[in-house]
């Protein structure tokens, strides 16, 4: 199992690691700061550098056969099991994902409806909600989200047991995707004292103030009750 350094510290930009496997899917390390695609968040990109001067651009990070696999750029120098290297994130891209992801948690806290899907993109994200009746007013919703952002609430990680999650099913907002259980504990993300509290394995900011300016974009009808709310980060 690869040690997932990003779970505890999303701000760690690089790490020293050892290659434990190389196959047709990509490169597996003993530890990594690279987040693999999942939960609507894209996999990280960056570069591996070895002491002998090889540089291996990483164009994606995925889960394959239960392992975190780093996908090298075509034609990149080859690595082999036992090679040691420095793994460095494309930090600007990751940090934007963290800003969007955290803003999506705030969006989720302001809409009283179950989540049917979500996706993080370039400077924007979207969440699909099961909302019967009228769509939310995007100006009112945007103002409410920005107020939480400007409140600079702390964002923190905690853990509960599988049994605690089972006893509190309302903590899970997503209808189609359930948080992984079976390890005995589930990772929870908290925003402030009472803004948002739900299971999530992605990367987030330390405080909402880092998000900056947000704008609610289109609110689209994607079915009888499915409403897609788009959110943009930055100017």
Overview of this structure, please?
This protein is globular. A hairpin with a 2-residue loop joins strand 6 (55-64) and strand 7 (67-72). It is built from three helices and 15 strands. The chain folds into two domains: 3-89, Elongation Factor Tu (Ef-tu), domain 3 (Beta Barrel); 94-233, 2-Layer Sandwich (Threonyl-tRNA Synthetase, Chain A, domain 2). Helices cover 17% and strands 40% of the residues. The mean pLDDT is 93. A six-stranded antiparallel beta sheet has the order 3-2-8-5-6-7, with no helix packed on it. A four-stranded antiparallel beta sheet has the order 9-10-15-14, with helices on one face.
List keywords for this structure.
235 residues; alpha+beta; Elongation Factor Tu (Ef-tu), domain 3; Threonyl-tRNA Synthetase, Chain A, domain 2; 2 domains; six-stranded antiparallel sheet; four-stranded antiparallel sheet; 3 helices; 15 strands; globular
Helices and strands in order:
Elements: E1 3-4, E2 14-23, E3 26-29, E4 31-32, E5 46-50, E6 55-64, E7 67-72, E8 84-89, H1 91-110, E9 114-120, E10 124-130, H2 138-150, E11 155-161, H3 162-167, E12 185-191, E13 196-199, E14 214-221, E15 226-233
Parallel strand pairs: 1-4
Antiparallel strand pairs: 2-3, 2-8, 5-6, 5-8, 6-7, 9-10, 10-15, 11-12, 12-13, 14-15
Helix pairs in contact: 1-2
Strand order of the largest sheet: 3-2-8-5-6-7
- The helix count comes to 3
Largest sheet: 6 strands, antiparallel
Measured on Cα atoms, how large is the radius of gyration?
A: 19 Å
| Uncertain spans | none
- CATH class membership of the largest domain: Alpha Beta
**CATH-assigned fold name of the largest domain:** Threonyl-tRNA Synthetase, Chain A, domain 2
- First-last Cα distance: 40 Å
CATH architecture of the largest domain: 2-Layer Sandwich
H/E topology pattern = EEEEEEEEHEEHEHEEEE
Shape: globular
Count of DSSP strands: 15
Structural class: alpha+beta
Overall mean pLDDT:
93
Overall tally of structural domains: 2
Proportion of beta-strand residues: 35-45%
Helix content: 10-25%
